[in-house]
Design brief:
alpha+beta, single chain
């Protein structure tokens, strides 16, 4: 009888140890996001702005998915909201992750409405396939191995920002 309890005790001990070992260590991940904006004409540029400039990317929301490829069936692991200075932090286990702006989780119709301009004489929108491809393209792919700071950078184009499905057809800047 004593040996049955000993075996049961050892079985519970080993199984709880294996469960504890499977839990991944989370690493502190700090995000610092900026956007590059080119000088688009208009006012005379300053020495700081004539070749374009970087500024914080504030208040953006990103869904984080595990893996290095995004598919619509993936489960959201976490979300971040960048603060007014483009910073956010959270803990993530070691691994590969895809960041997707949360508006890309909307239906294609809602996504297109949110990202199409209202002034048709100034902008030309590409076809819905462009919006579908953009919607399903990760904004960033990152790798976490330990505590780290990840620098996220987007590049804007004149008058259309980061939207690859818009073309500016308005008058040139003076």
């Amino acid at each position: 009888m004593h040996s049955i309890f000993s075996i049961l005790f050892l079985a519970i001990t080993f199984s709880s140890c294996s469960v504890l070992q499977k839990k991944e260590k989370a690493h502190e991940v700090r995000f610092q996001a900026t956007i590059f904006k080119p000088h688009c004409g208009g006012a005379k540029p300053t020495a700081t702005t004539e070749n374009g400039f970087y500024e914080p990317l504030p208040n953006e929301r990103y869904a984080i998915f595990r893996g290095s490829v995004y598919t619509t069936s993936e489960k959201i692991e976490a979300e971040i909201i960048l603060d007014a200075t483009g910073f956010a932090s959270l803990k993530l286990p070691k691994g590969e992750y895809v960041l997707l702006k949360t508006d890309k989780l909307l239906s294609i119709e809602e996504f297109m409405l949110q990202n199409k301009p209202f002034v048709k004489e100034i902008f030309k929108a590409k076809n819905s396939e462009c919006f579908e491809q953009w919607k399903n393209t990760p904004d960033f792919i990152i790798s976490i191995a330990n505590d780290t700071t990840i620098e996220l950078q987007k590049n804007a184009k004149c008058w259309v920002g980061t939207n690859p499905c818009l073309e500016y057809i308005g008058p040139p800047a003076p």
